[in-house]
């Protein structure tokens, strides 16, 4: 089957019906904008299963997503969307690039959850972008931007609760949104509707274990902390099992 797109973590193929994509999750891992590369054994399976479970959970709580169904251990079927070229980051505690950028230690509880945008452009290193620039460049319109922020904060509330039940604290995460292409059943149709897309996995979140503070996400790979595969498997176990 011909590839439509091969990214750093996933391969996108045409789906069985027009307007659908089959997404294959690879074990390939990259960090620091592609400078560090390796494989994490079993990561593709974990990320496909974790993402599928989280999309189902979010859908059941009223969040519109691109997810249709799981096709296999490493593949999901999704609705094709027109990706909004913004990485939408939600932060509950300081960490990573936020701490570096503002010269603050990691782990400070933020007064309220922050929604941050960066431009999806690897060549530029996904630079931080402010609302007026995203609007002025017509990457999104005002209604879409407001909707994306609203959804991002609702998703944060839902995911924080989901992971807390599994003894994991959601520190921050990255989302991608898109515009629906297929007309829906309603009179107005679904076209243009903002849907949560891409993936939600230990590659795209920071999860710290309550009590121990142990990092259970891609930071184990970025920072050579060891036990990378084990941490991914443990997150999957808790996501599926429902408890720690
Ligand atoms: N429902 C969807 N419809 C269209 N494109 C999608 C959908 N969900 C995810 N994508 C896109 O598919 C690609 C998935 O591949 P992957 O995550 O490996 O990319 P990447 O290396 O992170 O690169 P980039 O996101 O910068 O293109 C991404 O470009 C993502 O934006
Ligand atoms: Mg990606």
Q: How would you characterize the overall build of this protein?
A:
By secondary structure, the chain is α+β, with helices and mostly antiparallel strands. The chain has two domains: 5-79, 2-Layer Sandwich (Phosphorylase Kinase, domain 1); 81-226, ATP-grasp fold, B domain (D-amino Acid Aminotransferase, Chain A, domain 1), CATH 3.30.470. The protein has six helices and 13 strands. Strands 8, 9, 10, 11, 12 and 13 form a six-stranded antiparallel β-sheet that branches. The chain has a five-stranded antiparallel β-sheet with strand order 1-2-3-7-6. Strand 6 (67-72) and strand 7 form a beta hairpin. Helix 1 packs parallel to helix 6. Bound molecules: adenosine-5'-triphosphate and magnesium ion. Magnesium ion is lined by residues 7, 9.
The second-level CATH architecture of the largest domain is 2-Layer Sandwich
* Cα distance spanning the termini: 39 Å
Strand portion: 25-35%
- Radius of gyration, in angstroms, nearest whole number: 17 Å
The helix count comes to: 6
Order of helices and strands: EEEEEHEEEEHEHHEEEHH
Q: At the third CATH level, what is the topology name of the largest domain?
A: D-amino Acid Aminotransferase, Chain A, domain 1
The CATH superfamily name of the largest domain is ATP-grasp fold, B domain
Structural class: alpha+beta
Mean pLDDT: 96
Low-confidence stretches: none
Number of strands: 13
Largest sheet properties: 6 strands, antiparallel
- CATH class group of the largest domain: Alpha Beta
Number of domains: 2
> Any ligands, ions or cofactors bound here, and which?
adenosine-5'-triphosphate, magnesium ion
């Amino acid at each position: 089957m011909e590839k439509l797109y091969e990214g750093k973590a996933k391969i996108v193929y045409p789906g069985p019906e027009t307007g659908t994509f089959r997404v294959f999750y690879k074990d390939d891992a990259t960090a620091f904008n592609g400078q560090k590369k390796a494989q994490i054994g079993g990561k593709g399976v974990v990320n496909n299963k974790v993402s599928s479970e989280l999309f189902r959970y979010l859908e059941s709580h009223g969040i519109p997503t691109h997810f249709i169904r799981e096709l296999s251990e490493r593949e999901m079927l999704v609705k094709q969307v027109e990706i909004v070229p913004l990485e939408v980051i939600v932060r509950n505690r300081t960490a990573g690039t936020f701490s570096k950028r503002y010269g603050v230690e990691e782990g400070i509880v933020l007064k309220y959850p922050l929604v941050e945008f960066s431009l999806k452009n690897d060549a530029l290193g996904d630079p931080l972008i402010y609302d007026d620039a995203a609007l002025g460049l017509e990457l999104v319109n005002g209604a879409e931007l407001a909707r994306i922020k609203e959804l991002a904060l609702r998703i944060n509330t839902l995911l924080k609760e989901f992971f807390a039940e599994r003894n994991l604290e959601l520190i921050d995460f990255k989302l991608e949104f898109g515009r629906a292409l297929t007309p829906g059943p309603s009179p107005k149709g679904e076209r243009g509707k903002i849907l949560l897309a891409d993936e939600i996995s230990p590659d795209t979140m920071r999860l710290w274990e309550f009590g121990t503070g142990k990092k259970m996400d891609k930071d184990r790979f970025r920072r050579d902390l060891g036990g990378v595969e084990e941490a991914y498997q443990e997150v999957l176990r808790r996501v599926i099992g429902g408890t720690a």
